[in-house]
TrEMBL record:
Pfam families in the cross-refs: Peptidase_S9, Peptidase_S9_N
Keywords (A to Z) from UniProt: Hydrolase, Protease, Serine protease
Chain segments carrying region Disordered: 18-45
PROSITE patterns in the cross-refs: PRO_ENDOPEP_SER (PS00708)
EC numbers on record: 3.4.21.26
Domain Peptidase S9 prolyl oligopeptidase catalytic: 495-706
Protein's name according to its UniProt entry: prolyl oligopeptidase
InterPro entries xref list: AB_hydrolase_fold, Pept_S9_AS, Pept_S9A_N, Peptidase_S9_cat, Peptidase_S9A, Prolyl_oligopep/macrocyclase
Domain Peptidase S9A N-terminal: 32-429
Superkingdom of origin: Bacteria
Organism: Aliidiomarina sedimenti
Amino acid sequence: MVTIMTVSAALTACTTTEQAPSEHADEELNYPVSPRSDQVTDYHGNSVQDPYRWLEDLNSQTTQQWVTAQNRVTLPYLADLEQRDALKTRLTQVWNYERSSTPFRHGRFYFHFQNNGLQDQSVLYVREGLNGAPRPLLDPNQLSDDGTVSLTRVMVSPNAQYLAYAISDGGSDWVEFRVRDIQSGEDLADRLTGIKFSNVSWLPDGSGFYYSRYPETPAGEVDDSRSVAIYFHRIGSAQRNDRRIYDLSQYPSWNPYPEVTRDGRFLIATITDGFSSNAVHILDLTNRDARWRRIIDYWDGLYEFIDSDANLLFFRTTAGAENGRVIAVDVNRPQPQHWQELIAERDATLREVRYVGGKFFAHYLEDAHSQIEIFNAYGRHEDSIELPGIGSVDSITGQASHLETFFTYTSFTEPGVTLRYDIDQQQVEEIDRAQSPADLSNYQTRQVWYESDDGTAVSMFIVHRHDIELDSANPALLYGYGGFNVALTPSYNPAHTVWLEQGGVLAIPNLRGGGEYGANWHQAGTKLNKQNVFDDFISAARYLIDEGYTSPQQLAIQGASNGGLLVGAVMTQQPSLFAAALPDVGVLDMLRYHTSSANAKAWSSDYGLATDAEDFAALLAYSPVHNVETGVCYPATLITTGDHDDRVAPWHSYKFAAALQNAQSCDNPVLLRVETRAGHGAGTPTWMRIDQVSDQWAFLLDKLQSESQSSNLNAD
């Protein structure tokens, strides 16, 4: 049985630098004490206990000492796992391969990111002409000693004179924008702060750009509990001189983000309020007296700006088409009755559209894998691009004036093939292929369909060795997300390769709440329907067991962010169905998730809010923190988060860990691993990713591996 340290012992452990002794997997764990307060909150006449509310104060000495004490239990435990060192060695080998991103072009210059294998951050290169010699333009590895300062966004001015780029420190969503002269490689003095999720949209002449930032408090601190406004920054000017262009603060949940049409005529503001619908407002930049116009203000679907042609604005939209379609909106007659439908809805889900060389390149998902169809400017279908197999297309790039487009194809067993499509010749050519150090020919991918609890058919990808035996003895990892219109499609991950090398099965279901099958599929996993997501995941687990892929004693579950919520919910609803669980940076307190920032509150389009009585009942029914019960044997659990995570506040993971450690009734460990200098995941350096996965895979293999199974860490 697990035991709990006294308060004095826990705090003493936090303040000493002496290394705690290693714990073995079969020994008792002395968890730090997690005092339970008498905090109670009334929700619509219901008193709900919140004994670990004190952990929400991330800056308090008590919380920080508690986190340190948790790591002093977790890190030695993980370091002492039998296969941890060998896994780290193998992960380092498999991660060490050269890879490049999809090229993107501005004028005569081509840009791409490249990683030599184990670089902590990929380097941005530029070359003049497609066959020119690439030169490094921006190396984020030089921005910090430990690789934790990352490059999150780059936007090249239309004349390819300047590069606006955003850097994040320690994985934070907060970024600082800087500007670099592309020819000289030198930075200008421009520095922009107070920004989280904004793009930068340049004027055609490169004299300045529009962006969105948060307001400041009277004390001069950035306030991300309020909505952003659009500003204009002129190159060479201090940020304090930036002009505020559009402020919708009278609508507290509306956030405007800018985009300038390629002819420089219109500034388009995409107004977001959640993840299911948006509005579009425009400003005529050629008219000094022009005012903002609400050309699409119906909040009846998603409208994603594609490009423009004179008075016509092209949008991909789910309005009137759950799978998506392309429409043209005349700014002089923007009413729906005047819209032109250029590309009608299909059975496949339209995920992305680019307008290149006078053609629409439409990226569809057919049963959760990619297809590319080509349409002319009037919407007539002209061609299909044949892809190498069941996989995913990433980053279609190109502009209206170009006669070429680029994209990258990847799959579970294909690290990445970069392709160029010649529009005049209607030909595809391969220009780059990543080569994994691992032998990927030994694995196969199959797509299956299973029935969820309510009879809904759900698809799932399963990856494993060709010679797998369906004898229920295979360690299996079930990974899911199921929310925010995110589509889980086949893609390469070196971490998964090492898992497969150990004889493991990888299963990824396309749960409701995701974006694989259109807007209705997304909505079927939101708000009062959120339980559908968990039922889909639980049914996926039962399918794997019933078909002989694995057993409850060999089955682990993993998910991050909204997927961390998924793991937390299903392990509290069906604890005996899984042997181990990996909830990563999860949203785990569903009654208070919205209190951390305006961005968090925007998740209410998927979750609902506890301030609404009906939403509250649904949230309370599955909120992981609130559904942990004393006396239950929960799966072996490794909870992971980053202390710099300002998207999903780390206190979600803290409260869940405290509740589980207090309630656990069996010897299965409940560990909390808090990464310092890390955020929500984006920009995490390579060394840190390898460390994290080494811990996770070692933990799983220790909990899942039977005596009859042997390690395959020498596989190559």
